[in-house]
Write a sequence for this structure.
């Protein structure tokens, strides 16, 4: 019997309105009845509390050298940005990249979650893809040509996407291997054992050595003067912009191919170019030493660091060695080499190096840093990406100034006098003798560029000649030093001022070193190389994964094929798709000549289920009929395709009325043409059904049974019945097809639907004078759940009855889902309509990566290609929102941490290759892997003893309250929302673990479902047994009184 408390909370005698609603109704979103009014004074006060773009106090970033690039992406941000990309034809961004990275293709991979495929494309053209993604001046290069710059949303952040994909790949810890299709090292001729030396382990040398090693050269040695590699990337680019572990990772990729590095060997001190050639026997030498000496103005001659004067070549290496974990000389707890700055600092110059000096100076204790430069703001040499963080750190700029005199007192710098400059009518910089300014300062850092001046180093480079500009003259087409055979150079030493240009110098050199060795050193011993460079791409063990799959005795080289749809409109299109890498095609459906249709226009339209335009449409609707071409065209074309592409699979798609002669004629002609298999189109949802074909046959098990029997009588090759989703039970039709002799089925065709009714009440597509529309076939990933259900239903019901999946596959991830659901191969259409045939490369590399990672014991914590969330060793200022007073408190805590424990640099972990052997299963072994876990609702856990509840990660939360609103108005009122911190909190007692909050949260991994600690007790509202007929009658009587 219910207690009085039970009646108080649940009984029928009290109101149920307000019983379970949220307590904090002030934050319950409501529609305003009136215009809102707040005095300006109030809004000004309140906005401070919510402000996220708080100005930076440079005192609070002292000692914090952790990565802080504004362009750094989380996985969520990368996916959003990648899906903005249009993947343009002849993409201008690619033409603007010095290393010619296939930008649109790697962004395509990111947009589908294929981070391995993206990194593979990047590293194929740029062995320092992670470094360049971090430091490239993209506004001057790739992003400067982005077509979206012509729109209000602006250019794609290509550098950020590149850095994201390559950093995810870094975490995969995969070893680089040579192209498996090339001869092994042992099978290559003697010329590939040529001794090659590279001087300096900077970007140019790393790039050159990587490509030479990919080509198969096995005796490659890099000489580096420091005890670490990376060149300028390590010695002069700050940790907060380029962490050392990025550079170290790319060096390890080079070493994976057998390249040797000898540290502590300096040109001009330990060896010369001449000694490498004559004493050590190196037949080819590449100079990538950079420009090791600073350009120094005369007025600074004799000044020392003790007096407060640094050049960038003095200053930055000292900072890097003390702040980059992983360097042999770095001790971040007692950084003895770290310059001790204070007071006022002047940075001379306004290039990228000057910006790096600025960000380092403010972190080293300077109270005020002023950048002084010769020209005006419009002529600043630094790129946008470099200046943006400096601007946010509240830099002082002093344009149109040139140093005149250093003021000294007591042996230290106290001020700098500068002349004011101007530009004359010819654009020449002139000094105005009548104007000068004195700037107080305690330190001066000169960032006026670099050169080679040391007589010893100049001699050591011979026979290369260092010109009056401190550089070496080369043939820029080949990077060979002018007048010296077998001696090449690249990077700063030839005038290439950016990292990516240096990488491309090394890349270019590698090919022409290859040509020099094969055609000059070993002239006549080998066939000449092609005139167009053919450098090998980037490979790892992932690329060895076998994607072949056998279906009905037919071997498919990969499971990706084109569906019988617009991408297969012509034989030429199919031919191009095979060249792109598709494993099979299903031809556009053809019928008897007397059934050949004529299409209407328009007939293929974008879906209206999402508002976006351009690529990544989630749905299309079409009212296109079967092929307008004759059966003769298709049978002749099939024969030609099989002759040209004997390893590719061609499936002929045919359709007829319920007529035995027609079905058997089409089937026989297809078999005679050389088709590997036949697909019976019994499912076209529009147009053809009205002619007694397609859907008119496919919805009747009796008709399907007989058609399959007819075809089985006529041919010996396998055939598949294409099922319609527009039916109550897809398994009934599959049963009929199986009983009729079909070897399998295709599941499923498009879903019949009405896509759009416009404001004027006409439909779209609207056809003809009367603007009529009709029900068409909906396709794309919007119908994937329907197709996945059909595939799994058939696969669970019929053992050893292959299913060809179609309907919404647009990524390697969704392909694997179809395979797990029981499909052997996957047909694709809408994804090609969104892009082009080249998407298959994304799917192939993506599926290989998923199969490899899912099998690897080293990636157990990964979710597909998404790495596990990183947990810092020591958390600082956790649980605080990133706005207003909370953000200020966060900064205070970080500053306190620096003060107490030394500088913050981020973590470093040395690359350690794991050689654990494991087996990657085949596609056939993965087919139907998930079927045992797909059951009826009644077969789910009946005891409800594995319930979960939501848990919010405060550090990832961006305080939007989407979880709170969804739970409030669409769920169980289990989330409260703090009105000052905007942090949501889940009430475990109330939470039912429904997952709605996880679904609407915009931040990946911010909310997770964790096991419930207490027993789940549903809230029944009215206690069981309370709502009885007797009590209801009694209640009616009481209500009368």
């Amino acid at each position: 019997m219910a207690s009085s408390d039970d009646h108080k909370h649940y009984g029928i005698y009290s109101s149920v309105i307000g019983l379970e609603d949220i307590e904090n109704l002030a934050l319950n979103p409501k529609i305003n009845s009136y215009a809102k009014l707040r005095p300006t004074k109030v809004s000004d006060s309140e906005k401070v509390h919510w402000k996220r773009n708080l100005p930076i106090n440079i005192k609070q970033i002292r000692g914090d050298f952790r990565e802080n690039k504004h362009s750094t992406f989380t996985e969520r941000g990368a996916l959003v940005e990648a899906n903005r990309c249009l993947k343009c034809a002849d993409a201008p961004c690619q033409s603007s990249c010095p290393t010619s990275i296939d930008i649109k293709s790697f962004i395509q991979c990111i947009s589908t979650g294929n981070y391995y495929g993206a990194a593979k494309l990047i590293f194929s053209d740029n062995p320092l893809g992670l470094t360049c993604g971090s430091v490239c001046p993209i506004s001057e290069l790739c992003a400067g040509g982005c077509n979206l710059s012509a729109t209000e949303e602006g250019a794609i952040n290509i550098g950020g996407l590149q850095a994201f994909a390559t950093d995810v790949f870094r975490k995969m810890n995969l070893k680089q291997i040579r192209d498996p299709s090339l001869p092994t090292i042992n099978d290559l001729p003697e010329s590939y054992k040529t001794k090659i030396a590279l001087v300096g382990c900077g970007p140019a040398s790393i790039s050159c050595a990587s490509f030479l090693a990919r080509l198969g050269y096995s005796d490659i040695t890099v000489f580096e003067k420091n005890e670490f590699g990376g060149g300028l990337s390590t010695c002069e680019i700050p940790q907060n912009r380029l962490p050392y572990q990025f550079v170290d990772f790319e060096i390890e990729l080079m070493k994976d191919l057998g390249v040797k590095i000898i540290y502590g060997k300096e040109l001009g001190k330990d060896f010369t170019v001449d000694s490498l050639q004559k004493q050590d026997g190196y037949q080819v030498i590449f100079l990538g030493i950079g420009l090791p000496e600073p350009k120094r103005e005369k007025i600074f001659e004799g000044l020392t660091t003790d007096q407060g004067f640094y050049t960038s070549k003095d200053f930055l290496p000292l900072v890097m060695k003390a702040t980059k974990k992983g360097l042999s000389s770095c001790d971040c707890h007692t950084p003895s080499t770290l310059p001790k700055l204070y007071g006022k600092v002047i940075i001379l110059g306004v290039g990228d190096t000057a910006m790096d000096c600025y960000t380092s100076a403010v972190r080293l204790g300077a109270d005020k840093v002023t950048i002084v430069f010769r020209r005006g703001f419009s002529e600043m040499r630094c790129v946008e990406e470099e200046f943006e963080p400096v601007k946010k750190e509240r830099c002082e700029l002093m344009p149109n100034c040139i140093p005149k005199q250093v003021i000294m007192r007591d042996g230290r710098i106290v001020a700098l006098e500068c002349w004011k400059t101007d530009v004359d009518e010819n654009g020449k910089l002139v000094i105005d003798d009548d104007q000068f300014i004195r700037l107080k300062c305690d330190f001066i850092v000169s960032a006026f560029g670099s050169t080679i001046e040391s007589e010893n180093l100049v001699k050591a480079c011979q026979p290369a000649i260092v010109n009056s500009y401190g550089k070496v003259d080369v043939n820029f087409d080949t990077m060979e030093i002018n007048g010296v055979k077998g001696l090449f150079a690249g990077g700063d030493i030839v005038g290439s001022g950016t990292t990516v240009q240096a990488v491309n110098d090394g890349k270019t050199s590698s090919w022409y070193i290859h040509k020099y060795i094969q055609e000059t050193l070993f002239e006549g011993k080998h066939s000449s190389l092609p005139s167009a460079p053919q450098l090998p791409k980037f490979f790892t063990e992932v690329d060895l994964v076998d994607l072949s799959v056998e279906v009905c005795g037919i071997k498919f080289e990969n499971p990706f094929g084109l569906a019988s749809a617009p991408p297969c409109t012509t034989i030429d299109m199919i031919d191009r798709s095979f060249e792109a890498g598709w494993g099979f095609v299903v031809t556009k459906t053809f019928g008897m000549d007397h059934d050949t249709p004529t299409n209407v226009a328009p007939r293929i339209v974008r879906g209206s289920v999402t508002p976006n335009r351009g690529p990544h449409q989630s749905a299309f609707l079409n009212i296109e009929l079967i092929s307008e071409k004759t059966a003769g065209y298709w049978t002749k074309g099939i024969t030609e395709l099989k002759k040209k592409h004997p390893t590719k699979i061609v499936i002929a798609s045919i359709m007829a009325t319920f007529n035995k002669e027609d079905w058997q004629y089409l089937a026989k002609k297809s078999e005679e043409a050389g088709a590997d298999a036949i697909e019976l189109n019994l499912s076209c949802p529009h147009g053809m059904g009205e002619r007694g074909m397609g859907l008119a046959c496919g919805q009747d098990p009796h008709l399907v049974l007989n058609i399959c029997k007819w075809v089985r009588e006529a041919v010996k090759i396998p055939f598949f019945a294409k099922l319609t989703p527009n039916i109550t039970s897809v398994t009934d039709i599959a049963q009929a097809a199986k009983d009729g002799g079909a070897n399998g089925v295709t599941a499923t065709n498009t879903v019949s639907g009405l896509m759009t009714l416009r404001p004027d009440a006409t439909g779209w597509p609207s056809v003809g004078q009367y603007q009529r529309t009709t029900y068409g076939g909906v396709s794309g990933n919007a119908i994937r759940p329907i197709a996945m259900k059909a595939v799994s239903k058939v696969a669970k019901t019929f053992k050893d009855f292959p299913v060809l999946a179609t309907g919404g596959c647009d990524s390697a991830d969704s392909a694997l889902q179809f395979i797990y659901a029981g499909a052997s191969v996957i047909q694709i259409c809408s994804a090609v309509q969104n892009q082009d045939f080249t998407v298959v490369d994304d799917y192939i590399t993506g599926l290989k990566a998923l199969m490899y990672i899912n099998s690897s014991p080293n990636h157990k914590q990964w979710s597909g290609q998404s790495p596990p969330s990183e947990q810092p060793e020591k958390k600082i200022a956790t649980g605080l929102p990133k706005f207003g007073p909370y953000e200020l408190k966060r900064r205070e805590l970080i500053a306190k941490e620096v003060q107490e424990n030394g500088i913050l640099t981020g973590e470093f972990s040395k690359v350690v290759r794991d050689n654990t052997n494991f087996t990657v299963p085949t596609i056939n072994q993965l087919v139907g892997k998930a079927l045992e876990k797909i059951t009826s609702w009644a077969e789910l856990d009946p005891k409800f003893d594995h319930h979960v509840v939501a848990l919010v990660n405060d550090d990832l939360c961006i305080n939007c309250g989407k979880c709170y609103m969804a739970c409030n108005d669409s769920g169980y009122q289990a989330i409260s929302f703090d009105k000052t911190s905007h942090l949501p909190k889940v009430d475990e007692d109330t939470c039912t673990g429904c997952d709605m909050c996880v679904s609407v949260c915009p931040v990946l991994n911010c909310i997770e479902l964790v096991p419930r600690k207490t027993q789940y007790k549903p809230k029944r509202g009215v206690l069981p047994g309370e709502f009885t007929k007797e009590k209801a009658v009694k209640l009616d009587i009481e209500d009368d009184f």
The radius of gyration is 35 Å. Residues 1-13 have pLDDT under 50 and may be disordered.
